[in-house]
């Protein structure tokens, strides 16, 4: 992996790098918005415009998105370590440019699936890079806070755009209006990334030279891509625990994205109510991370991860049992709260263990597995829903989420935060 020499003036910490940090927060809100343009509208497009009958077929776009984003995450980590963070961020925005047009004008369901594969690559490159850049800037002491702010911005972007596109779709139709908003986000995000975002790899070099790190299996912190993959996936108890929990977390998010709007609409709710429910989950998820990231700095990552997975399981169980707007709204709030507890703690735990020289690669591998959960969720929930109905599919995922939390409790060691 490549290396870079830190400038003597390079300083770590949120206070010292606040302007660039807040710029990256804004950029990630736009990244989230490009995903949020789909959350309310695409499941309804599948059913109402393209007449896709089977749930398994309808969820093909989430499967394509998950696989492509997982690959994009991995590439973002490896390329960020080799070439720097900013080029990868800009490449991610460039990849997103054709997506709104494909969604607006695609005349077959295959075009929608293809658009989601392209969007997945873009999301993997952009979101992973903003995560790594914030880790670079803040150093070890405020990593949970940094991840909370990053993920809050991204998922509030998802929520706000899901709500806005639901309103646009209710008043102006499912196409093209909702996707014009996504096109605007891409133009602004690309412009900011090219003109205003600065490279942060030298901050990671400064942290690596601080003398506070001892990497698993390597005192120098220099590992091959294969070694990092094996550590993150299997060998290190913290990294592997986090990777499986991330996969299950996004497995249930894939379920929520693909099937919840259909479930709510089938119960007689209007598009605006469906949009409100769909938006409530990422809104609570996003806003909650402003608090939970700091709590993970104070009380440790494992407690937040285990508790978050259990709260998500309860929320999913309520979705399976519910049949009216009020109960579903409570379930969405619980699901969002549980995800908010786990999400920034999972990312911060990677930063706690991974040496700065290979941290971007470890983040990319974690996010490879985490966003592979979208693909796993699309297949599992689609097959289960076709065979037994949507409530049964939700119940299955609720059980898997609880089991994942128990595995973290047993396998992941309590660890002092650097």
TrEMBL record:
What are the residue boundaries of the Major facilitator superfamily (MFS) profile domain, all occurrences included? Answer: 20-416
Gene Ontology MF, one: transmembrane transporter activity
Q: Where in the cell is it found?
A: Cell membrane
Q: Name one Pfam family in it.
A: MFS_1
Q: Does the keyword Membrane apply?
A: yes
Broad class of the protein's primary localization: membrane
Membrane topology is:
Multi-pass membrane protein
Domain of life, per the record?
Bacteria
| GO CC annotations, alphabetized | plasma membrane
| Name of the protein in its database record | MFS transporter
């Amino acid at each position: 992996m490549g290396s870079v020499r830190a400038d003597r003036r390079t300083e770590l910490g949120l206070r010292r790098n606040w302007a660039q940090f807040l710029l990256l927060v804004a950029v990630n809100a736009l990244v989230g918005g490009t995903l949020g343009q789909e959350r309310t509208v695409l499941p309804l497009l599948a059913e109402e415009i393209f007449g896709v009958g089977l749930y398994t077929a309808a969820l093909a776009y989430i499967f394509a998105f998950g696989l492509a984003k997982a690959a994009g995450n991995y590439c973002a980590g490896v390329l960020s370590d080799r070439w720097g963070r900013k080029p990868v961020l800009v490449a991610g925005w460039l990849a997103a440019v054709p997506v709104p047009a494909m969604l607006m004008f695609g005349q077959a369901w295959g075009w929608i699936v293809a658009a989601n594969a392209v969007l997945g690559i873009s999301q993997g490159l952009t979101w992973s890079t903003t995560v790594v850049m914030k880790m670079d800037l803040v150093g070890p002491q405020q990593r949970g806070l940094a991840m909370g702010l990053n993920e809050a911005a991204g998922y509030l972007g998802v929520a706000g755009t899901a709500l806005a596109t639901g309103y646009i779709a209710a008043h102006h139709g499912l196409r093209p209006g909702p996707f014009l908003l996504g096109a605007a986000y891409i133009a602004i995000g690309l412009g900011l990334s090219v003109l205003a975002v600065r490279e942060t790899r030298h901050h990671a070099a400064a942290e690596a030279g601080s003398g506070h790190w001892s990497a698993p299996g390597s005192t120098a912190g220099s590992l091959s891509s294969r070694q990092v993959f094996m550590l993150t996936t299997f060998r290190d108890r913290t990294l592997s625990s986090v990777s499986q929990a991330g996969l299950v977390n996004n497995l249930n998010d894939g379920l929520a994205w693909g099937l919840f709007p259909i479930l709510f609409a089938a119960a007689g709710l209007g598009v605006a109510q469906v949009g409100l429910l769909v938006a409530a989950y990422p809104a609570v998820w996003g806003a909650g991370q402003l608090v939970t990231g700091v709590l993970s700095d104070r009380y440790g990552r494992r407690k937040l991860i285990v508790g978050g997975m259990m709260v998500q399981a309860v929320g999913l169980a309520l979705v399976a049992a519910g049949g009216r707007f009020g109960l579903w709204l409570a379930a969405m709030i619980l699901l969002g709260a549980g995800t908010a507890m786990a999400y920034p703690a999972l990312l911060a735990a990677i930063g706690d263990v991974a040496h700065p020289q290979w941290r971007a690669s470890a983040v990319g591998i974690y996010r490879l597995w985490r966003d592979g959960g979208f693909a796993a969720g699309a297949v599992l929930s689609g097959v289960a829903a076709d065979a037994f109905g949507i409530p049964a599919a939700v119940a299955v995922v609720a059980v898997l989420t609880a089991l994942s939390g128990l595995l973290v409790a047993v396998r992941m060691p309590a660890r002092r935060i650097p």
